[in-house]
Every structure is written in structure tokens, then in C-alpha cells.
Amino acid sequence: MRSAAVDVPCKPEAGPWILAAAILGTSMAFIDGTVVNVALPALQSSFRATVIDVQWVVEAYGLFLGALILVGGSAGDLFGRRRMFLSGVALFAMASAACGLARDIDQLIAARALQGVGAALLTPGSLAIISASFPEQERGRAIGTWSGFSAMTTALGPVLGGWLIQHASWRWIFFINLPLAAAVLVLSWWRVPESRGPTAKQIDLPGALVVTVGLGGLVYGLIESPQLGWGHLRVVGSLGLGVACLIAFPFIEARAVSPMVPLKLFRARTFSGANLLTLFLYAALGIFFFVFPMNLIQVQGYSATVAGAAALPLILLIFFLSRWSGGLVARYGPKLPLIAGPVIAALGFALFAVPSVGGTYWTTFFPAFVVLGFGMAISVAPLTTVVMGAVDADHAGAASGINNAVARVAGLLAIAVFGIVMVNAFGVRLGHELAILEVPQRAREEIQSNRVRLAATEVPSDIDPKFAPGVKVAVSGAFVFAFRVVACSSALLALASAATATLLIDHKPSS
């Protein structure tokens, strides 16, 4: 028999332990969502992987996390939040061990997919456990502590990961999850009370299956198209299946008893606008942070540790200015910050297109990170406020979950779409540079055939030595050109989010 939801908050002495378990658990998922980007050049070198291969390392995780995070929240409400949280942590730990032990890129991709499922179970459970365990007067402070420490670990994760990659191996960015997971499991069994959602009915399995297949089909077709060609049966078939499933998804949700995405929430124009804004803005961030570490490590010559620390100004600005930016909503309403923030972020993305090869971090990328960080700091807190304020209190959890899922799906789709743009831009510019160098046709074709490796493209061993230095410079120059295309595309996406705020976000401040 299923026990009733826990109505009595935790004992005061258990509070710090519950917070510690929730923070450590979500930190694993947050860190693995970012630190892997720093490891992509090492993965390319270790497995001689193409950019398509490393796209899948990122996308396999994002696909299952984005598609199943709402299901994870519903499963916690129905079967027990602690039970689902523990299940997610255990699965995440086992998948992390499999990632670290992977012998080829395919094994790593499969293990990353399992990591995504584990993260989808543990991420919503951690915040739900805090909400259920603390009395109302202490809940805000507990959630604030969770947010602060989660932001701190997310900021430090790429730095630690970069250090491990540089001084040990990329495998250790996954192995380090094992002691963290063990600590979370012990703390959770010892101190975390079980709780359930009082109104939980059932899990929307048809919706979860359709959206996972839909996103998977779409992402597969987009990622594999540069290698297989748009006319290939697998590409056409997967794109067709993906589009068909995503078209069917809202009809399935409309008939579901307990839908993972309540469609009635989108009747509120502000809620729809906030999620469309999220889609554009987080798509810009997703593709930018996929490509940026490759630029730093493979082209600019940064170490993995320094590359992991490069984005700290952005994260620290968001962290320290979030309280101030939240006050902007009370003063000016949400519309103005949600126009100004993305416009400033767009300027930051555009500044990343200026540097070429060389120069110090402080004169090339640091100013761009400061501008981007300031723009994101103005945007994040007002966006959260708008999402939560656009629906009634009974649907606040669903609204937050949907917006979280949209942010993750935005990055997933952006990497798939703009990966094509990146490979094509790199190939066109590389062909132009090789023609200027008058590289022999046979060598030129061999180099171009490896363009899906981007900056990791190697000079053919049998090429005339007089061409080798020029080819290396051409590869770096072609990558910088493609990176500029991506940076400008991110700027345009940020401007699209500002336009969305102009058209769909209300002037009135949230209560």
C-alpha cells in the first residue's frame, strides 16, 4: 500500500544533511552537463573521433535528460521522491563508471545516454525533497542555499574537470562521480524522509515515449546528415519519424489523464512567450559552449584547466547579480529586463567573433565574457519570475519543469542544427585556403574528407613538407571562420529572444 505524502517537515537537525544530499546529487548532473565540453578535444584525440562522434557524446546525455526530466518529477510524486532520487543517483553512478571505462566512442555514447536517464530522475527529485522536508518559513532559505551551492559547483566543475583532463585523464571526470554518489546514497538513506505528491495520478508513458523518439529521430537525422548526406535513407527516415512524433505529441498530451506537459498552461501568452524566449536564448548558449572549448584548446593552445576556467566571469556575474536583477522586475516589470538582457548577451556573443588566433585571454575573450555574463544576469532571474508568475500556484511546479525541459531541449537541437552549419562553414573556408596554397588536388581531397574532425583535421603524412605548415594554418583559420559563424548565429538567436519579449511578454510586474 502506498503511504501518504509527508506533511510534517524534517527535524531541525536533519536539515543540513538533507541539503547536503540534494546539493551533491544535483551537482553531479550539473557538472557533467558542462565539463564534458572541455573534454571534447581529448576525446577526439583519444578515439580519433569526428565532430559528429563528440556531438553524440553531448547529445545522448541531453536527449534523455531533456525528454524525461518531467517524467522524473511525476515518478517522484507517484512512487516516492526519495526512492526516485536514490534510483537516479545509483543509475548515474553506474553510468559514470561505464563512461570512464569506455573502450570506444560508441560505448561512451551509450553510457552517456544512461547518465541522462539517471539525471532526469535525480534532478527534479532534489528540489522536491527540499520543498517537502522544510517548513514554509525555512523553505526559501533552503532553496536559496541549494541554488547558491549548485551554482558554485557548476562554476568550479569545469575547472576541476580541466585539471583532471590535463594532469590525469578525461576518464577521471566520470570516475570522480563515484565517491560523490556514494556520499549521497548514504546521506539519503540515513536522513532524507520519504514523501509523495498528494495529487499524483499516473505517469504519462505514451507522452514520454513519443517525445523521446521524436527528439531522437530529429537529432539523429540532423547530426548524421553531414556524413551520410540528406538523401540517405537513414537520415530521411529518422527526420520523418521525428517530425511525425513531435506533431503527434500535443494531441497525445491533450488526451492524457495526467499529461507531462499540460497544454492549458500555454493559453497564457506570457507563459508561451517566456518559453519561446528560453528556447532561443538557451539554444544560443548550447551551441556556443559546445564549440568554444575546441577553439581554446585546439586552436588557441590553451590548457584544459585554463579552458575550463575561461567561462568563470560569466558564471560569477550571474551568481552575484541575480538578486539585483530579480529586483528589476519589481521596479520596471519583466518586459524591459527581458529585452535589454538578451540584447546585451547578443553583443557579448558578437564580441567572440572578433579575435583570430593568438592574443591573451584578457584582451580577447574576457571582455566578451563580461558583456555576455552581464546580459545573462539581467535575463535569468526575470525569466524565472515570469515563468512562475504566469500560472497559478497549483501549476507552478509543472511550469518550472516545462521551462527547464525547454532550456535543455534548446541546447540539444542547437548543437544538432548548428553542427551542420559549423562543418559546412569549416569545409568551405578550408577548401578556399587550400586552393590559395595550391595544395595538390589529391592531398586537398584527403584533407577535405576529414573535415568532420574540424580543428583536429590532420595534415596527410605523404604531403610535400613545404605545404605542411600552410595546411596547419589553413585548418586553424577555417575553424576560426566557422567559430565566428556560430558566434554570430548565437547573437542572432539572442536577438530573437529579445524580439520575443517585445511581442509576447507583458509590461506588468509579477506580484
Under the CATH scheme, the architecture of the largest domain is Up-down Bundle
Q: Structural class of the helix and strand makeup?
A: mainly alpha
The overall strand count is 0
CATH level 1 name of the largest domain: Mainly Alpha
CATH topology description of the largest domain: Growth Hormone, Chain: A
What is the radius of gyration computed over CA atoms, rounded to a whole number of angstroms?
Answer: 23 Å
- The number of domains is 3
Helix content: over 70%
What share of the residues does DSSP label as strand, in percent?
under 5%
Coarse shape: globular
The poorly predicted ranges are 1-8
- Overall average pLDDT: 88
| Main beta-sheet annotation | none
Q: How would you spell out the order of helices and strands?
A: HHHHHHHHHHHHHHHHHH
- Helical stretch tally: 18
Distance between the termini: 41 Å
Considering the protein shown, what is the CATH homologous superfamily of the largest domain? MFS general substrate transporter like domains
Compact overview of the structure:
78% of the residues lie in helices and 0% in strands. The protein has 18 helices and no strands.
